[in-house]
């Protein structure tokens, strides 16, 4: 049976990670920073381990330790990808604390499919996943294309790691959780968007979204709805408010925005066919 705990974006918040691992029943193995579960459960991390919070290095040590000892898997988030992209262009601002971990970040896949589930940072988008299938950032030629605007690889990575976005009409002032005004909003990519309003589509929900108008078909050409009979997909990335529903059919977003709310979320998956909010766990 698949027994996988899927953990949301940690962003350097090591205290919340330690709290959550303990709540999920993981125990520190003697003498190192690796954690394992007495029942053999493993963790799937949805990416964005780093930046924002106070202790990215400590978070990386834990996740690497667990992944080296076989008690965790992780996918790449947009923050790790941006870091690797900055290295490629020779950006001098790449933080020292990340330098020892670049080679490890380069090995992380963009998506995972195992134990009956799928894991990706932002969007399970088959057309994009096909473009980057079996690629990682180790491949220098691929990386060069991936950071070049307009290439199929760049477009695919933007979609998979950052979400599908639509322009927000000027009369609907949209600010994200950090108070930044946004000209575009991320959509509930798993839905068939035809005929849906901004209020139906923008994820997470925001109060100013129109319930009577929606994006044009032209603005939705990238949408690839996710069939309800496909395996469950787990994502992070969307910085959901505490009360925002995290489960939408067979799609679960476990990113509850640890930076804004101080709470890290996980879903305790045990092979069930139907995802249920009762299996969500969060740090205190
Ligand atoms: Mn993200």
CATH class of the largest domain: Alpha Beta
Largest sheet strand order: 5-4-1-13-14
Integer average pLDDT: 94
Question: Low-confidence parts lasting 5 or more residues at pLDDT below 50?
Answer: none
The percentage of residues in β strands lies in 15-25%
Outline the biggest β-sheet: 5 strands, mixed
**Secondary-structure element series:** EHEEEHEHHEEHHHEEHEEEHEE
Gross geometry: globular
- Which structural category do the helix and sheet elements fall into? alpha/beta
**Helical region count?**
9
Protein described:
The protein has helices at 14-23, 56-68, 78-88, 102-107, 126-131, 140-146, 152-162, 198-201, 258-261; strands at residues 4-7, 27-28, 35-36, 42-45, 72-74, 111-114, 117-120, 165-167, 184-186, 233-235, 247-248, 251-253, 265-269, 280-282. The two termini are 29 Å apart. The protein folds into 2 domains: 4-148 and 230-282, Purple Acid Phosphatase, chain A, domain 2; 165-221, no CATH class. It is an alpha/beta fold and 284 residues long. The longest helix has 13 residues, at 56-68. A hairpin with a 2-residue loop joins strand 11 and strand 12. Strands 5-4-1-13-14 form a 5-stranded mixed sheet. A 5-stranded mixed sheet has the order 6-7-10-12-11, with no helix packed on it. Strands 2-3 form a two-stranded antiparallel ribbon. It has 9 helices and 14 strands. 25% of the residues lie in helices and 16% in strands. Bound molecules: manganese (II) ion (MN). Manganese (II) ion (MN) binds at residues 9, 48, 77-78, 121, 237.
